[in-house]
């Protein structure tokens, strides 16, 4: 998946830089490519968030690293056998694709290991974990009354776009169907992701797809349907997705460095493209494990967190030794080491896994594998996570 050379100008640019190329792909290994990109940094409050034009990644380094953004576990203990945990983290070096494993217990960072030369300050591509974060923003919008309910249909959520596609079968798709990947929208990520990525009007692309009645109501991985979340949020909130994310999520969590991907219409992609520090990915996970709370702030409605991380539909995907894999609202669900869990899952075993019954969160980042190596990598990383859950449980 090659970054586009031509970047859409967005008014006056605050700076000009050619960043290192990165890839967020399900089909090939990352490669470095030459790019010529215009970059605009959006800075409001404490958040420096970088977005791309036409798929080209950009990096924001305006915020200083904060080494005090977590309570570090050794001072608190948290009842974990620290030597046994460290052995698991050390042994995980055998998974050569791993770049980080972080463990949070009762709000304290009790384990943190980096691999393969990765640093705590690195922004790591989390791929489809982006979807789960988009779901969190939907929950906030519903709480605020900006979206009435998950029963709302696309023709009501995106009236202007729907008017340009009269009679489209997608009009009747509900927000709940998008969140549970059960829309039936006829899309195959293996052959159509590139077309979605480079579409001049991604909303028109999605609304132009037919609905497969036989698949509606069943879980089918669907970037095209989920891509509609960004324009839905923009229409509902009356501001850009980066502004929404800062106000409702990143700002309250103290996340100050984010890299995202902008589609050709100018929207922040809701189905892929986020890059976060591992410690900030852990903040996302712990907030979900903690019923939507970060410190003394109720960042997300507890009811939304519960609904998002509860089983709604079975899936055809899993990662051993996970059992009983299902899907909530863009969060996977299952049972691991005898405990109910939920997790955000990005390509290549980017995991943000929560075990609410243990007040535990585990996150992982890894390099993007080739499709041939994907299953083995997913299973190897999930096995490390399972060992940690078994130790704590």
Describe this structure in words.
With 393 residues, the chain is an alpha+beta fold. It has two domains: 1-68 and 123-276, 3-Layer(aba) Sandwich (Beta-lactamase); 72-121 and 286-393, 3-Layer(aba) Sandwich (Beta-lactamase), CATH 3.40.710. It is 30% helix and 20% strand. It has a nine-stranded mixed β-sheet with strand order 4-6-5-17-16-15-14-13-12. The relative contact order is 0.16.
Task: Quickly list its features.
393 residues, alpha+beta, Beta-lactamase, 2 domains, nine-stranded mixed sheet, six-stranded mixed sheet, globular
CATH fold title of the largest domain: Beta-lactamase
Radius of gyration, whole Å: 20 Å
Mean pLDDT: 85
CATH class of the largest domain: Alpha Beta
Return the structural class: alpha+beta
Percent strand equals: 15-25%
Strand order, sheet with most strands: 4-6-5-17-16-15-14-13-12
Mass-distribution shape: globular
Main sheet record: 9 strands, mixed
Helical content stands at 25-40%
Instruction: List low-confidence stretches.
Output: 1-49, 51-67
CATH architectural group of the largest domain: 3-Layer(aba) Sandwich
Beta-strand segment tally: 17
Oligomer: single chain
Secondary-structure map:
Blueprint: E1 15-16, E2 38-44, E3 47-51, E4 71-72, H1 82-91, E5 98-105, E6 108-114, E7 124-127, H2 129-143, H3 154-157, H4 159-163, H5 175-179, H6 189-198, H7 202-207, H8 223-226, H9 229-237, H10 241-253, E8 257-259, E9 274-276, H11 278-289, E10 293-294, E11 297-298, H12 302-308, E12 313-314, E13 323-327, E14 332-336, E15 339-346, E16 350-355, E17 360-366, H13 374-392
Parallel strand pairs: 3-8, 4-6
Antiparallel strand pairs: 1-2, 2-3, 5-6, 5-17, 7-9, 8-9, 10-11, 12-13, 13-14, 14-15, 15-16, 16-17
Helix pairs in contact: 1-13, 2-9
